[in-house]
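Chain X:
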Amino acid sequence: MILELKNISKSYGSRCAVNKLSFSIDKGEIVGFLGPNGAGKSTAMKIITGVQPADEGSVTINGVDLRKNPLEAKSHTGFLPEDNPLYTDMYVSEYLEYVAGIYSLKNRKEAVGRILSQTGLDSEANKKIEQLSKGYKQRVGLAQAIIHRPDLLILDEPTSGLDPIQTEEIHRLLLSIGANKGILFSSHTLSEVETVCTRILLLHKGKIKADIPRSEIGDLKTLFKELTAQQ
């Protein structure tokens, strides 16, 4: 088991963002984290990646307790947040080499070459990030998240703002790397998780309302529409 959450809760003042959340992800699963805006998806992802602490509960990554051994747990995780923060004044290859250094990777040049090829960024390697289209910026964000070959990949709305062609390219990339990782893929679009994911978690008001394989997504559509209409 790559990821296990047990009874995770998080509140901001009087508002409960995540309420007793429990689920797990195994290797080879691409899990869609589906829910309307404000469902608690981003909060849960920030807790899993150690960006912010939970008020209670535990997160275990590859058998490592995030609270007890945060650096070791985080070393198994790659994260692409929704706003995709990048150093836009750096060149693509320069930025990825910098990220490789953060993870203390050996043969950084080799690692950068590998990830440029894997994410289709070879032709953009010598461009400044600020010169790239949003689709290519998302690829750079994904490249930094997987350059250290993590077992767990957390993606918060990775196709937000992309056109249909760019979205399809990101989907293909995720499918190509998903067999060797556990991936948690956040979206508020039912059709997107149906395209990419092997399993779907439906979140509403910080609680899981459904946990089903993609083959049963038809049973989820009515419930999702009802929850979205309540927003």
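Chain Y:
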Amino acid sequence: MNNIKLLPRLMTFATVAQKGSFTDAAVHLGVSKSSISQQISALESELGARLLNRTTREVSLTALGFKLLDRCTMLQDQLSLLFNDLNDATISPSGRFSITFPHSLQSEIIIPAIKQLLSEYPNLEPVLIADDKPLDLVENGLDVAIHVGELPDSGYRALPVGSLVEIFCATPLYLSKNGSILSKDELVTHNWITTAWQKAKTSVTHIDSNEREDLKLNVFSKCNTLPAAIEMTLNHLGIALIPDIVARPLIKSGQLTHIVKNLQGPQWPVYTVHAYQNEKPIHIARFHQIVCRLFEKM
């Protein structure tokens, strides 16, 4: 198998998979739809396996296609990085790289992203500031902020990353002592441990119908940081609304239980925010890219 010859076909496949259609991929790549189809057919023939399921309306991935897309996405990142490096061959990022972010993203997103970034740019000196309150970039001498929630008006540049959804959780011991929580009527009677941004009257979404509703919850304790709210919850003191990205590992380990699964709390957009008006430095562009990839895998 000629691996070099497969490279453009793999990139074409990745674009089709990401765009969800041959037509959109052709427009994005500036080639004809028939050329896209020929590239995909040649790739599938070379591999001896189907990568895409095609209908008149949409394109979907086979099991092998899903696996290959993950690798191709990494390859796209590396190619992008390679050409950025060629364009900035005389520049090797070094020195202080300061970033602020909410506690909810620290373990699963920020630390892994910094680890990857330092493997590529070892002369950077990261300064990490975890704070559930947004910090102004200029006032605090920051290079980047990972912002969760709607953006305030400012002159900063914001790049979309993904979104967080809050889900209701409690410990198995709390539920054992206080009874199962299966409905919204049961939910509002329990002690709710809140964070700084959560209010007694909170908006929830019914997953089955996608309808939104305001619930007045029984505020028991207020915490100014998410880690404090989680620690109180883990000590069986009440229920909490926790971002899914933080809750999932705790649910998987058995420390928390996802309750009232047909309801979810607010969904928040996530952005990378920087103050550069023109071309941003290569390490900031790469950091944003890594953060986006980590979000996609969650």
